[in-house]
Amino acid sequence: MSTDAFVCRGYPVRADQLTLSAAVRPGVRGWQGRTGYRLEQLELPDGQRLPMLAAAVSAGQVFGLFLELLGPLGEVVDVVVERQGPAGPPRRWRRSAIDRVVLCSHLAEFEELLTDDGYLSVAVVAQRRRLEVQLDDHKLLHVYGRRLGPFRRLLRRAGIRHCRRLPLICETAHWHHTCDPDASRTVSLVARLAAQPEAVRRG
Fold this sequence. Notes:
alpha+beta, 3-stranded mixed beta sheet, 5 helices, globular
């Protein structure tokens, strides 16, 4: 994976119904992306496996669908913002126990940043269950949890279908781009959320 803050590198962003945002570009010619989601199993440090899904959604739809997927998490949630970069360690901030409706309102003010910045990701976590929804730095949607049924129904309602062999941009050579090279807008987002710095675990 390569990153570049200023030069728009990579190949065309539309292929087979999937329109990528400005955050990421294929690094190889002819990459065939499409909308859809696939089911996987995440192996946890204790050896258990946690069901998850990964969804590829076009740029104009991904943020709105991300907010919809937060519904099953409950009324009060935790939020984690993480920023990667071309140099230096990643940075992470957490806000615990925020009203989900208030969170969605705050995030909506930063929709362009969250959609188009390839260094930025946001995860929203349920408080009393192992359940998480993430919009990652590739602008893929990930859901982790024992019961994925409510999320699959929301995806189907949005026209996003199950695809067993869905290609994901994170699994091929690609470029990341940022619309926030000095991270000032990220700082504004973190301040709006009243999030606090958190150590990033390695490994």
